[in-house]
Amino acid sequence: MKDILLNIEALIFASEEGLTAMEIKQILQDGLMITINKDEVLTFLDQLKAKYASEDYVFALHTFNNKYQFLTKESYHDVLNQLQAHRDRKKLSQAGLETLAIIAYRQPITKLEVEQIRGVNCDYSIQRLLEKDLIKIVGKAESIGKPLLYATSDSFMNHFGINSVKDLPQLKDIINEENSIGEIIE
């Protein structure tokens, strides 16, 4: 049993984007010929969560988008933010953030639709978002020319710590009366 736990721990540690319980089960069965069911995998994952909850470790086992992943504990975020500050090339421009927000809320969406909302060309912003793996191509639209459809990626979900786009703030949560123009008619 300890071998199974260690193998699951190694799989999660080596995985860049995290693994689902079903993926772990499948890898153990296919690669190591270990017969295990999903509930047993979940029990092992709970054991790992308990192990890494200890203060002896700088990271913990988290679940985002139904994938298990080791992430640094919150108490170390300040020092890691300093590291991130040195990676200026990773920053998104205002145009990039606007484009990402449009894609996140309207996905799947074509580049033309994004440009119609923003009112400017979005080639560069979309290219940068693809390079940073914050968005992905999810298919082609059925309209003339079959333009590419864009949606947020798993990296987007991980970066913002959400499980699905349903967890994004709703406009009613963001807009308040101070930001409104004109009279409110009831």
UniProtKB/TrEMBL annotation:
<dbReference type="InterPro" id="IPR036388">
    <property type="entry name" value="WH-like_DNA-bd_sf"/>
</dbReference>
<dbReference type="GO" id="GO:0051301">
    <property type="term" value="P:cell division"/>
</dbReference>
<protein>
    <submittedName>
        <fullName>Condensin subunit ScpB</fullName>
    </submittedName>
</protein>
<dbReference type="InterPro" id="IPR036390">
    <property type="entry name" value="WH_DNA-bd_sf"/>
</dbReference>
<keyword id="KW-0131">Cell cycle</keyword>
<keyword id="KW-0963">Cytoplasm</keyword>
<dbReference type="InterPro" id="IPR005234">
    <property type="entry name" value="ScpB_csome_segregation"/>
</dbReference>
<keyword id="KW-0159">Chromosome partition</keyword>
<keyword id="KW-0132">Cell division</keyword>
<dbReference type="GO" id="GO:0051304">
    <property type="term" value="P:chromosome separation"/>
</dbReference>
<dbReference type="Pfam" id="PF04079">
    <property type="entry name" value="SMC_ScpB"/>
</dbReference>
